[in-house]
Design goal:
Radius of gyration: 22 Å
Strand order of the largest sheet: 1-3-39-38-37
Largest sheet: 5 strands, mixed
Structural class: mainly beta
CATH class: Mainly Beta
Number of domains: 1
CATH architecture: 8 Propeller
Number of strands: 39
Distance between the termini: 18 Å
Shape: globular
Length: 570
């Protein structure tokens, strides 16, 4: 096993702002075409070119060299300790043997994917004060057009030279003094970089932006909270739209055939009370379909109108073609923080079905026609706690699901826990948290599970319980594996057919990212970023104090099969 240690944060910043130690090879000229073909019959599965593996966001790999029959032969082949000490939430991009990834505190690395040898390392110099609700995290980079793109914590979009790591351009998306930040892994779509903001808990007004990938010029903006006179503005009382929230901090999904972007949006502001923002509060808690060329809204579907429990719908939409009730349907699939898994028609957003994936849910219900009934007895009030399930951590956190097109099955990482909320009077002040209440997890009851749902029927195929809530993403493979991790340091390899745990690996810290798999010189690898922290750790993972003392070092772990070493030397 190759182990690489890097210098701690402060010293590393001074070293990495200069010239790169080495160069990565130039990006392939046909990368854009390969990104469009990712996950199709024209793709051999060797690379992981986009955040979700493909524009469909399935997190599914065509590789099957590592499979459920030989996963016991897996070994750790290299690790890279970055010197960072907050949640390591990034999902790497792999292009022709080079891995690109970000860490907490906005460092970026290009490394040889088979060995971990660092080709270059860039560190962005952040301002001293940042409005962060949920840790100094970053969920990944986008790669293309000769560049590596990262959204920085101060709400700045960066473009780095993919060969050297040198800064090519940077563009401010919004101002931190107003409560804005950015943690998203951007999406590259042709000549555009598409991404949204973080900071919905600070009374910001959410947006989705597109920037010119070559120059950084902003091409369009879709405001997730409409201004007066715009469609949906009637769902906001008074001037509440100005502090309406609706952040969009998870990577959008893209449909090349129709040039449509699908994006999930987050909670309205203030989070815990709705008194100042009467109405359904569009387009918070939505899946929104946007025209990729103009940013214009095509349709939307809202999961929780007038949310007062912080049940963000900032999730990763998946797109697929299914047969449901004997009819061919083009659909959007997603698992929401509110505890429901949804299937919508992606041509117009029409509701097809929803199925509950958490064991306990009492905030309300999704009706058979897709409308929502809220239980108003669960609305937070002053002077006493109101408990609701699932809690503010969600039935599923931001961590992405995976979809297996062979089995027509989605795999969901699940949190089982409630939160109790209480309204407090709070005046909005720019740059400060704007919750309108306080929230805490119900202690000593949290656990988790990984649930498999057959998407053409809505039936639960299997449900594998875990001791702690699952707050890592999921990846699945043609080899019949479902791969994820748990807070108690365990990396899990499950059988996609049965849910049985086939293999575990214990890491130095808890898992709060999403794995990827790729091939170099004929050998399949699995990479998984490890490092505990972020928002769920701030809540001691729903009242489980035994996880408080976990190490928080950022380490990239990479695995391959033991009996396949010879291929690496060829």
């Amino acid at each position: 096993m190759r182990i690489i240690f890097l210098l701690p944060l402060l010293f590393a910043i001074f070293l990495s702002v200069g010239p790169a130690a080495a160069e990565a090879p130039p990006l392939p000229s046909d990368l854009e075409a390969r990104q469009i073909a990712a996950g199709s019959a024209q793709d051999d599965g060797s690379n992981w070119l986009l955040y979700g593996g493909s524009y469909k966001a399935w997190r599914y790999s065509l590789l099957d060299e590592i499979n459920k029959n030989n996963v016991k032969d897996l070994e750790l082949v290299w690790t890279l300790a970055t010197g960072m000490h907050d949640a390591f939430e990034a999902s790497p991009i792999v292009v022709d043997g080079v891995m690109y990834f970000s860490t907490s505190w906005n460092h970026v690395y290009a490394v040889e994917a088979a060995t971990g040898t660092v080709l270059w390392h860039y560190a962005y110099e952040l301002p001293a004060s940042l409005p962060l609700c949920c840790g100094a995290v970053n969920r990944g980079v986008a790669v293309g057009r000769g560049k590596v793109y990262m959204a920085a914590l101060d709400a700045t979009l960066l473009a780095l030279d993919a060969r050297t790591g040198d800064l090519v351009w940077k563009e401010a998306m919004a101002l931190p003094k107003d409560g804005y930040s950015a943690t998203i892994a951007p999406q590259i779509i042709g000549n555009k970089i598409v991404l949204g903001n973080s900071g919905g808990d600070f009374g910001t007004r959410g947006f989705v932006d597109a920037y010119d990938a070559d120059t950084g010029v902003r091409l369009w903006r879709f405001w997730t909270v409409p201004a007066p006179g715009e469609p949906g503005s009637e769902t906001w009382s008074g001037d509440s739209w100005k502090t309406g929230g609706g952040p969009a901090w998870m990577t959008p999904t893209y449909e090349p055939e129709t040039h449509t972007i699908y994006v999930g949006t987050g909670n309205p502001g203030p989070d815990i009370t709705g008194e100042s923002r009467q109405g359904d509060n569009l387009y918070t808690e939505c899946i929104v379909a946007l025209d990729a060329e103009t940013g214009a809204r095509k349709w939307h579907y809202q999961t929780v109108p007038h949310d007062v429990w912080d049940l963000d719908n900032v999730t990763e939409p998946l797109i697929a073609d299914l047969t449901i009730d004997g009819k061919a349907r083009k659909v959007v699939l997603f698992a929401s923080k509110n505890g429901y898994f949804y299937v919508l028609d992606r041509t117009d957003g029409a509701f097809i079905y929803a199925v509950q994936f958490v064991h306990k849910l009492d905030w309300g219900r999704v009706n058979a026609d897709g409308t929502v009934t809220l239980d108003k007895s669960k609305f937070p009030v002053k002077d006493k706690w109101t408990t609701v399930y699932p809690g503010a951590a969600g039935g599923k956190e931001w961590c992405p699901v995976a979809y297996d097109p062979q089995r027509k099955r989605v795999f969901i990482p699940v949190i089982e826990n409630g939160h109790r909320h209480k309204v407090i009077e709070q005046e909005f002040r720019p740059g400060l948290l704007y919750w309108g209440g306080v929230s805490e997890p119900v202690p000593n009851e949290a656990y988790g599970h990984i649930m498999a749902i057959d998407v053409e029927t809505g039936n639960i195929a299997w449900d594998t319980e875990t001791e702690f809530p699952v707050v890592a993403g999921v990846t699945c493979t043609a080899g019949g594996l479902v791969i994820t991790g748990t807070p108690d340091q365990k990396m899990l390899f499950l059988d996609a057919d049965t849910g049985n745990v086939l293999r575990t690996f214990t890491a130095a810290s808890g898992w709060h990212s999403a794995p990827v798999t790729f091939k170099v010189n004929g050998r399949q690898y699995i990479a998984f970023a490890n490092g505990w922290g972020g928002w769920v750790a701030g809540f001691d993972l729903m009242g489980t104090p035994e996880l408080e003392d976990l190490p928080r070092d950022n380490v990239m772990y990479v695995f391959a099969r033991k009996d396949n070493k010879a291929k690496e030397k060829k």
